[in-house]
Amino acid sequence: MATGETGFSDVMFDLVSVQYHSLKAGHDYGQYVRDARNAGYDDVASFFEDVMKEDSQRATRCHELLRELQGKEDTGGT
């Protein structure tokens, strides 16, 4: 497998990146839910909750795939 500048495969780096961004976005969406609720827009808050749930599922799937790949390739560890 191709190894990027980090010493990890490009695929592992990509999965970690998607996982990070999904988790970060999920954290941010919590504020968006509060903002929408405080403004009285329950339908918008529900939308943000749905998006937050999707990102949580995405992060979980990345974690599962990373665990599967861990045993299949050299992760660059010393």
Question: What is the gist of this entry?
Answer:
This protein is mainly alpha-helical and 78 residues long. Helix content is 74%, strand content 0%. α1 runs antiparallel to α2 (42-70).
Can you put this structure into words, describing what you see?
With 78 residues, this protein is mainly α. It contains two helices and no strands. The protein has helices at residues 10-38, 42-70.
Please report which band the strand proportion falls in: under 5%, 5-15%, 15-25%, 25-35%, 35-45% or over 45%: under 5%
Give a short account of the largest sheet: none
What is the SS-derived class? mainly alpha
Whole-number mean pLDDT: 87
Which spans of ≥5 residues are poorly predicted at pLDDT below 50?
none
Please identify the oligomeric state. Answer: single chain
Task: Specify the number of helices.
Answer: 2
Give me the strand/helix succession: HH
Query: What is the number of beta strands?
Result: 0
**Rg (CA only):** 17 Å
- Compute the separation of the termini in Å: 18 Å
| Percent in helix | over 70%
What shape does the CA trace take? elongated
Topology:
Layout: H1 10-38, H2 42-70
Characteristic key phrases:
single chain, about 80 residues, mainly alpha, about 75% helix, elongated
